[in-house]
Each structure stands twice: as C-alpha cells, then as structure tokens.
C-alpha cells in the first residue's frame, strides 16, 4: 500500500524511501532532499582543503622546538658531568705524577748539596764516595721509573639506553602517571619520618627517624647519622 509523502503539507504519494533518514518522499521532495544533502558537501570540501593548506604551512620543527630544547639541556648536562669527572681524574693523575717528580727533585737537591759541601771543604772519605755513588745510582733507577711510569686506569662503560629518556604524548591539562618509569625499589620509613630532605644527581638525603640517612642511586643507605637537633627544614627553609 502506498504511503503519503513525509514532507510537511505535501499531498503527493511517496515514490521512494530515503535510506539516510528513513522517510518516504514523493519524487519532488526526494529530489530536493538529495540536492540539499549534496549541497552540504561543498563546505565540507572547503574545510578539508583548508586543513590541507594549513598542514602544508605547518612547521613541525617549531612545534617540537621546546621539547627538543629539553633534550638538548639533558645532553649538555650529561656532557658537563662527563667533562667534570674527566677533569677531576686528570688532576688526580697530575698530582700523582707531580708527587713523584717533587720527591725526586728533593732527593736530587739533597745529594747535590752534599757533594757541593764536600767539594767546598776539600775533604771526603771512601765511605762518602760509596754512599754518594749508591744514592746517585738509586736516583737514576727512580728516574727510569718516572720516565717509564706504568699506571693502571680502570674505566667502566657508561650505561646509556632508551630508558634514560621517555617520550610520550599526554592529553592537555592531564598528568599521565604512565609516563613515570616503573618502581625500582621501595623504602620503608618509620612513622613520623620526613621523607626526602634534599638531593643531587648522586644521593638522596632522607629522614628515617631517628636518623638522617644518605641514600645512593641504587637506594642503598651509605651513611647514617643520629639526628638529635629538633625540627628539620628543607633547602628552602620550610619545616618538614
């Protein structure tokens, strides 16, 4: 049985069912309905073209510039730590060598002074000659050791892998806890302990009542001092 057109105040009989809106429409209104739907494609096409043009104009390097700067800061900080350790060990190496040279210099000055004294006095003994000869021979051996100094320098490779840096997108105004690395180790604290007081890149200074503890990167307590001085304040002078 035929149905009337669903268009308002249309007396015509429907000639088709519109699949998108499930309405029975006459030929005229079915054509108008189709034309209306097609006309809505044009602004959508304009929006798509605008998005394409916008994407072409996008400088993605500017977008990630701030985040790249954070990576650069990490790189520079890591290099500074390496350079600091390198300079420290170079100074240690120089002090070791300088100590040997200074000791040799002192012994040379002493033997030189002794020989000059004997020459000035124009008097010596066979024992003096033997002692001087033995001392000079010893100094020559020491000089050979200095010139052919043999040291052992033991280094460990830096453990650098992807886990040192995490990059993950997060939604706006949301702190994503999944970006945090997994728990490495738990620390049990007695009641009324003050947690972390201060830290640097090597240690945590913690309060484990009644002690102050120094904890290394592996969460090992390396030093414990009994705290008997009352309230504890953080590095900003705030009571913990």
Structure description:
With 240 residues, this protein is an alpha+beta fold. The protein has 3 domains: 16-57; 63-147; 186-240, no CATH class. The protein is built from 5 helices and 6 strands. Helix 4 packs antiparallel against helix 5 (126-147). The mean pLDDT is 81.
Q: Rg, please?
A: 43 Å
Low-confidence stretches: none
Counting DSSP E segments of at least 2 residues, the number of strands comes to 6
Largest sheet: 4 strands, antiparallel
Q: Helical element count?
A: 5
Share of helix, binned: 40-55%
Number of domains: 3
Main sheet: which strands, in order across?
A: 3-4-5-6
Mean pLDDT: 81
Instruction: Please state the overall shape, judged from the principal axes of the Cα atoms.
Output: elongated
In terms of structural class, how would the helical and strand content be classed?
A: alpha+beta
Helix and strand run: EEHHHHHEEEE
Name some characteristics of this structure.
240 residues, 3 domains, four-stranded antiparallel beta sheet, two-stranded antiparallel sheet, 6 strands, elongated
Question: Short description, anyone?
Answer:
The chain is of the alpha+beta class and 240 residues long. Helices cover 47% and strands 11% of the residues. It folds into three domains: 16-57; 63-147; 186-240, no CATH class.
